[in-house]
Amino acid sequence: MLSLYDKQLSSRLLIGTARYPSPDILRQAIVASGSEMVTVSLRRQQSAPDAGQSFWNILRDTGVDILPNTAGCESVDEAVTLAHMSRELFQTEFIKLEVIGDNQTLQPDMAKTLIAAERLLRDGFKVLPYCTDDLVACRQLIDAGCQVLMPWASPIGTGRGIANPYALKTLRQRFPDITMIIDAGLGKPSQAVEAFELGFNAVLLNTAIAKAHDPVQMASAFRHAILAGFEAQQAVPMLAQDIAAPSTTVLGFPFRELP
């Protein structure tokens, strides 16, 4: 089971809900993914009272848990305010904290993220911070009380996969008891498998599914990749070596002269 504070999930795939071709394809993709928790950004303006109602109906009908996020926030006050609004609207203590520091790469500002996390934790939130793979910054988030970290693989929406496997592997090894979810940058199911081979507990995806030619089929592909990756992680893969080792012994072969 995937542990997020006091919540237990059987699926290790979290998905976003933006950029899908249609609400119906979003619904089908959620079902195909097997995900039990989806991220949602709170729209700060609505053109009409009924705007977005069909979207909420879809999420309610699928039975998934909602993980609100503070996407687009660039300041601590903005992120904290949006988190409080999300808690009131969605009736959940969970918040995916994002405080962006660079508009080109959408890299999180780790100093501001830490300050916002400290404030939200004091206010009773269960904070899942979107972060870089910076070891010291991640330690500070853990020391502040975060029980879950969401380090990026590469910039949001790029599909470039894991840009710095050494840093992520080091992060995973240094904090073995912290739930870690790879968030952002994964574009292919094989990259999700790699995340699990590095020891991570789950992955969060949006663009990789929503912008695929067939989002529903891609959601299913990621579902199976996550299962394969987690089973491989549990089985503990063999260590790579430089010298060949025959998988079949020659002992007992007929007509083979022994030295």
Question: Overview of this structure, please?
Answer:
This protein is an alpha/beta fold and about 260 residues long. It has a single domain, classed as Aldolase class I (TIM Barrel, Alpha-Beta Barrel), CATH 3.20.20. The protein is about 40% helix and about 15% strand. It has helices spanning about 25-35, 55-60, 75-90, 110-120, 135-145, 165-175, 190-195, 205-210, 215-235; strands at about 1-5, 5-10, 15, 35-40, 65-70, 95, 125-130, 150, 180-185, 200-205. Helix 3 (about 75-90) crosses helix 4. It starts with a strand and ends in a 24-residue tail after the last helix. The relative contact order is 0.14. Mean pLDDT is about 90; it is low at about 45-50.
